[in-house]
Amino acid sequence: HFHIGDSLNLMEFKEGRHTGRTIQTEVTYILNDYTGLEDGYCILSIKVTGAIKITYITQYKREVLHAPSGK
Asked: Is the pLDDT score of 67 beyond 90?
């Protein structure tokens, strides 16, 4: 079960493989027991936290990107 304040690392996948892109987030709101939502599921509101380091490898080069923190 999720709780407000939980930290989540969300990883991007493309064609079943991790792209190297990962963001850190914090759960800010949780909606449970909503009409039409299956049992065991919830709707989360999240915010991106801290600095994000995104690393991915393309066919031609490796790139490292830094997103601004706290935005």
From this structure: no
